[in-house]
Amino acid sequence: MSISPLYAFVYLKSMYKLDKNIIWLLRGSQRKVVFLNLPKDPFMSNKLRKELNEKKETSLSLREMSRHLRDFEKRGLINCINKEDPYNKIYSITKKGLKALQGLKKIDLTELSKKAT
User: Which domain holds residue 55?
Assistant: First the structure.
């Protein structure tokens, strides 16, 4: 049985006291996979993309990976360490990003589907 997006949103917001970033991350399957696999140490987008594609968790082009990382940066979840370099950007996760990552890992979506039935 599937659950409605509105029910899922209300349930998640009330039960986990989620902030807008976690809800935003949950709404995109690729976005969620990329964010959950962000390393704690500084990283390059191409290396992360290759690792994700090798794990077969998702299939991402470099353009898609760059878009996700730009979106994360706009929301303050990651920081670009060397903005002046147009090709080999290095990113690191921020305190805000670590907090969102911890909140996202706490959520067990199987529990959500059990509550809906």
Answer: 5-116
Query: How distant, in Å, are the alpha carbons of 70, 78, 87, 116 from that of 35?
Result: 12, 10, 21, 26
Q: What are phi and psi of 79, to 5 degrees?
A: -125, 140
- Non-local (6+) Cβ contacts of 80 within 8 A are 73, 89, 90, 91
- Closest by CA position to 48, among listed 93, 103, 94, 108: 93
Tokens matching residue 32: 């969620």
Q: How far is CA 63 from CA 7, 45, 67, 82, 102, in A?
A: 33, 10, 6, 19, 27
Report the CATH number that the domain containing residue 59 is assigned in CATH. 1.10.10.10
Task: Say yes or no to pLDDT of 37 above 80.
Answer: yes
**Segment 50-86, tens digit of pLDDT:** 888 888 777 888 899 999 999 999 999 999 999 888 8
